[in-house]
Design brief:
By secondary structure, this protein is of the alpha/beta class. It contains twelve helices and nine strands. It has a seven-stranded mixed sheet, with helices on both faces. Strand 4, helix 5 and strand 5 form a beta-alpha-beta unit. Helix 4 packs parallel to helix 5 and helix 9 runs parallel beside helix 12.
Length: about 400
């Protein structure tokens, strides 16, 4: 050790020995306090805050019966009704969340598709999705209207399709049928919007009004696009799926069956599509060593940083998740992350609200043209996870 450094160490050692333990403890507490304050300020500065939603982003277009593109129409927004009902409940002195209803669903299934420059892949994915939706939840032409709304197949029963009574409507609600697709063009610079509308036109008058296309002026990120779409769904259930078609869409039936098994008394539930069962498959094993290393490292980080129920999910990042309509008000309004890590925030919010979550194995395959940079986006997700967890832990993000 250099003499000068040794002399400094000696002076500090003597000073510490001659200082009262109480004074040292005071210094330690002061240092800890300053560290906490600096850490809070740092997280406050770097924690992402979603930008304001522009008026034009709350509208959609679809194909009219005559084949023309409609004018921009306002998207429905379930949160307005939910907030009004919540306010009236609170004014009556009820501070629980169990009596807060959400406006009735107009269709059974809503599909949200985030799309950023997806003109080449969107059509393939949509063909598979619409074929399944029409087969499982299709509505006869006579029951569909030009704007995509549907009549109800049954009279008022007082129960949801899954058997739960409606808390938002004392007289009960009719069972919803039908489906809709809400494509969110996330600031696309290519012909994503044109591709989506042209696909809708190709379906003929039976289903054109069921496909709605909304455009974000600037790119928000996949999480921002999904969250935006979920704000405006009309379905009793809402699923989001990636535009690349990597997930086998017919496995949506598995998610629906599992979510019905776990829904709580308020009809809340989340079903997460999972590729965890494919970890030992040839398709995953043949990936590069670096990619598999990053995958396992991220899972370890999730286990360390997230709360127990979220940490128990073996595949948080699969782009195929189903939400019951009743679960949306406890998750979507509190979303902050708009990047790749948004899935984790959704699951954390579900856990915080005691919403049951089921992990369901699905079919999946690699698709060419991925926009994910394995190395940099993995590092970005790790950083995003740390900031996300810290922002919620320090109270910078709140459920208010």
């Amino acid at each position: 050790m250099p003499p000068a450094l040794a002399e400094i160490v000696k002076i500090i050692t003597v000073a510490v020995r001659e200082t009262s333990p109480y004074i040292l403890a005071g210094y330690a507490l002061l240092a800890l306090y300053l560290f906490v304050q600096v850490f809070y300020i740092f997280i406050y500065i770097v924690a992402p805050t979603p930008r304001e939603i522009l008026r034009s982003e709350t509208t959609y277009k679809h194909i009219e019966d005559n084949g023309s593109v409609s004018y921009a129409k306002p998207l429905p927004y379930w949160k307005s009704t939910f907030d009004q009902h919540k306010k009236s409940i609170r004014e009556k002195g009820d501070l629980t969340d169990h009596n807060i209803g959400i406006e009735d669903a107009e269709v059974f299934m809503s599909l949200v598709v985030p799309a950023f420059n997806e003109e080449n892949r969107l059509g393939i994915m949509m063909r598979e999705a619409v074929e399944y939706l029409q087969k499982e939840y299709g509505v006869p032409v006579s029951e569909a209207t030009a704007n995509g709304s549907v009549r109800c197949r049954q009279k008022n029963t007082g129960k949801h399709l899954n058997g739960h009574t409606s808390s938002g409507n004392a007289g009960g609600i009719a069972e919803p049928i039908g489906w809709e697709v809400l494509i969110i063009s996330d600031g696309s610079k290519d012909k994503t919007v044109d591709t989506a509308l042209e696909f809708a036109r190709s379906l003929g008058t039976e289903s054109t009004g069921l496909i709605r296309v909304a455009s974000l002026v600037e790119n928000r990120g996949k999480g921002g696009a999904v969250t935006h779409g979920m704000r405006h769904v009309r379905g009793k259930y809402a699923v989001f799926a990636d535009a690349d078609g990597a997930s086998r869409f017919e496995d949506l039936g598995k998610l629906v069956r599992e979510i019905k098994k776990i829904e709580d008394q308020d009809g809340r539930g989340v079903a997460v599509g999972s590729r965890a069962h494919l970890v030992g498959s040839e398709e995953v094993v043949k990936r590069s060593f670096v990619r598999n290393l990053l995958m396992h490292s991220f899972h370890l980080l999730l286990w360390i940083l997230t709360p127990p129920a979220t940490a128990a999910i073996r595949d948080t990042q699969c782009g195929f998740k189903l939400f019951s309509r009743s679960a949306l008000p406890y998750i979507i309004p509190y979303m902050h992350s708009e990047s790749w890590i948004f899935d984790v925030e959704m699951l954390m919010l579900a856990e915080a609200a005691s919403i049951p979550v089921a992990e369901v194995p699905i079919g999946w395959h690699e698709v060419q043209g991925s926009k994910l940079n394995v190395l940099w986006d993995s590092l970005g997700m790790a950083w995003g996870l740390f900031i996300l967890r810290a922002a919620w832990a320090t109270g910078i993000y709140r459920r208010t």
